[in-house]
Design brief:
- The protein is of the alpha+beta class.
- The protein has three domains: 106 residues, no CATH class; 48 residues, SH3 type barrels (Roll); 87 residues, Alpha-Beta Plaits, CATH 3.30.70.
- Helices cover 52% and strands 16% of the residues.
- It contains ten helices and eight strands.
């Protein structure tokens, strides 16, 4: 049997142990001493997650705002003046307006996300001990170097952005970018534009190189037909025949949906030794002017043949006209 030490008092010993344990036991919620944990934890562990969460929230807000104002920005770019018809001032079809809005907002949202990521990364590096002024200086140097090295790319992308915003042309438009680039737009990106001409040749144009462009199918088009008759022709009769052909074409159900205005005969446009040039024109649906012109010329040939009106003949050097 194990002996008990003289003077040992169990109650006093138990009380002493309990006081010692209580003095060493952490205090706080559920017995956790948060102050002690905070004193031993580096502040970066708390600040860096806060920076990342804040950047995520700011990115969401910016993307939401850009999405919200996208259509308003496009509509403002289309507002050319109160003197223009509504269909011209506010652009073409709703699908084209939606496509432009999606393109512009996607670009702006990507740029905003990149800026937020760059700022958040700089703040995180600063919390880890890097010098924030040194980071900003390095970013400036890198930006200048990239600007000099890729200035053509930056120019093309900025030009492509404004092409979309200002709706200079879109997919399906018939454009004239200067000879020999004339045809239908097949694709528009921030970097380049792809155009296919009437011969089937595909032209790839850098957007920064498009200094001026003629859009032949934006909002509405116009069919212009010039007819050269012989010098001895009765001009009044020829003008009357042209007006009759135009009225018949306008009234034809197969063509009335493509012709948006009455056919107007302007009369004599030019007089030269080869003959007299008469001009007729009418407004059409976008990109419908070419087929209207072909049909109008075909009907004019038949009408002139019926009324005995002769077309002008070219004078070959060295031969006398008959």
């Amino acid at each position: 049997m194990v002996g008990v030490r003289r003077g040992f008092r169990p109650r006093r010993y138990a009380r002493r142990v309990s006081v010692t344990v209580a003095s060493n036991w952490p205090t706080g919620i559920l017995g956790v001493d948060f102050q002690s944990i905070a004193d031993r934890t580096p502040h970066q562990v708390v600040v860096i997650p806060l920076i990342l969460v804040g950047a995520w929230v700011v990115n969401l807000v910016l993307r939401w705002l850009i999405r919200r104002i996208g259509m308003r920005m496009i509509a403002s770019a289309d507002r050319l003046g109160e003197f223009m018809p509504s269909e011209v001032r506010f652009g073409g079809s709703s699908s084209r307006l939606q496509a432009r809005s999606e393109t512009v907002t996607a670009i702006a949202r990507s740029v905003a996300s990149i800026l937020v990521v760059v700022v958040a990364a700089a703040l995180v590096l600063a919390e880890l001990g890097a010098s924030l002024p040194a980071i900003l200086a390095s970013a400036g140097v890198i930006g200048v170097a990239l600007g000099f090295g890729a200035q053509t790319l930056v120019r093309d992308m900025l030009a492509g952005f404004f092409i979309v915003v200002e709706d200079r042309y879109g997919v399906g438009d018939i454009v004239d970018c200067g000879a020999p680039v004339q045809g239908v737009v097949e694709r528009v990106t921030l970097r380049s534009t792809r155009v296919r001409d009437v011969n089937g040749t595909v032209w790839h144009i850098a957007n920064g190189e498009v200094l001026s462009v003629g859009n032949k199918s934006q909002s509405w088009s116009r069919a212009v037909v010039d007819v050269v008759v012989a010098p001895e022709t009765d001009v009044e009769l020829a003008v009357s025949v042209l007006a009759g052909v135009g009225a018949a074409l306008r009234a034809d159900p197969a063509w009335s949906d493509r012709i948006t205005g009455d056919v107007e005969v302007l009369g004599v446009l030019l007089i030269d030794p080869t003959g007299i040039t008469l001009r007729a024109l009418c407004d059409t649906e976008p990109a419908a002017q070419f087929e209207v012109e072909r049909e109008f010329r075909l009907r004019v040939l038949g009408a002139f043949d019926t009324d005995g009106i002769k077309l002008a003949q070219a004078i070959v050097p060295g031969t006398a006209p008959r």
